[in-house]
Specification:
Strand content: under 5%
Number of strands: 0
Shape: globular
Helix content: over 70%
Structural class: mainly alpha
Distance between the termini: 15 Å
Number of helices: 14
Oligomer: single chain
Length: 392
């Protein structure tokens, strides 16, 4: 069971990262779109993703099954297949809203499925499963962009888009092989899912939104800072991001070693480390120092990524689909606002102060998460008997 979850997350990560680095360039190049048109196209994908992720999360909690995840990967598979055959702007916008947005829900759906399956398997696997899946996700993002570059060089955007469609479709294979989805807990114990979000969840969502906005804004500012302010070649940016991605893999695996009782404190420490990372970047002027900051960035991203999902799920143990969608939507919302926010800050204040602005955002996320407190109860510590599981 766990092997298919690992394969599914790996394949999804490769599919997303393979096209993620080049979708904007496709719009500006073969599609001949203006910067405003490209921005609208990308924003519609994110906005649609927010709505679809929330809807599928609620559907998952009403009746946990694989079909929301299958729908989430089928949409972009069809969408990228269409993009490989046309550059018509009205068609691109329709594909963005109707098909590509669903792909942003796939991450949340896979981790919601993982929560249900791992909870049934027992506390030990639940505690170690999400960090392992997160490390596989980092591995995929280290491999995917290189695969995308090779496909682009070999056959242009048509081949890249067609291969991306096939990659998303292939994610459905491990989902089918995963088997039917068990209920996370006995319905008489769990009670109804959904309801209003409590104060801890709202504070945590705000904290992760600040964190992800800082992360994505920093990803926009860093290349400009390195090449513009420091005068380094473009290849230096690729080196820095590669170092970060490689560090994330062992760092995410290392979070398995922490006991459940210390997860939240480690999570808050990871956010604090991320704020310090931006300060360190602003103070760095040489490549060795910048490489060292990427080690810190990789550890912080892996810690928050691996433990953050579990933390949010523990805040709503009866609604794993909705909880995971909330976490994923903080990333999607961050992607909506980070480009404009980072660009405006850099233009008004400069690249180095923009790094400090990202540090302030990360610090705000750290404070919000610390105030949110620990989950009332972690359902993983009380796994239900497998013999009484109802399957769908």
């Amino acid at each position: 069971m766990f092997v298919w979850l690992l394969v599914g997350v790996l394949m999804l990560g490769i599919a997303e990262s393979m096209i993620g680095s080049y979708l904007v360039l496709f719009g500006a190049g073969p599609a001949r779109l203006s910067p405003l048109q490209v921005g609208l196209f990308m924003s519609l994908i994110s906005a649609s993703g927010l709505a679809v992720s929330t809807w599928l999360g609620r559907r998952f909690d009403r009746s946990a099954s694989r079909w929301p995840a299958l729908l989430a990967v089928a949409g972009p598979a069809a969408g990228y297949a269409i993009l490989s055959t046309t550059t018509s702007y009205p068609v691109l916008l329709l594909v963005a809203v109707g098909l590509l947005g669903a792909g942003t829900a796939a991450f949340a759906q896979l981790f919601a499925l993982a929560r249900v399956h791992l909870t049934r398997a027992g506390e030990a696997l639940t505690r170690r499963g999400t960090p392992a899946l997160r490390s596989v996700w980092s591995l995929a993002w280290a491999v995917g962009p290189m695969a995308g570059a090779a496909l682009l060089a070999a056959g242009g955007y048509g081949r890249l888009l067609a291969a991306t469609a096939v990659a998303f479709l292939a994610v459905g294979v491990p989902l089918v092989l995963l088997g039917r989805t068990p209920k996370a807990r006995d319905e008489r114990e769990a009670g109804p899912a959904g309801g209003r979000l409590g104060r801890p969840m709202l504070l945590a969502a705000a904290g992760f939104t600040c964190f992800h906005t800082a992360m994505l804004s920093g990803s926009v500012v860093l290349p400009l800072y390195v090449t513009g302010t420091l005068g380094r070649p473009d290849a230096s940016v690729g080196l820095l991001f590669s170092v970060c991605a490689l560090v994330e893999i062992p760092a995410a695996l290392a979070t398995m070693l922490f006991p459940a009782a210390r997860r939240r404190r480690i999570l808050v420490a990871g956010m604090a480390m991320f704020a310090l990372y931006f300060v360190a970047v602003a103070a760095s002027a040489t490549m060795p120092l910048l490489i060292a900051t990427q080690v810190v960035r990789g550890i912080a991203l892996a810690t928050v990524g691996a433990l953050g999902i579990t933390y949010v799920q523990d805040l709503a143990p009866r609604s794993p689909g909705r909880a995971t969608a909330i976490y994923a939507n903080t990333l999607t919302f961050g992607s909506l606002v980070s480009g404009v926010l980072a660009g405006a800050t850099a233009q008004v204040l400069g690249y180095r102060p923009a790094q400090l602005f990202c540090a302030a955002l990360a610090a705000a996320g750290c404070v919000l998460l610390a105030v949110a407190g620990r989950p009332v109860a972690a359902p993983a510590s009380e796994p239900a008997s497998a013999s009484g599981a109802a399957l769908r």
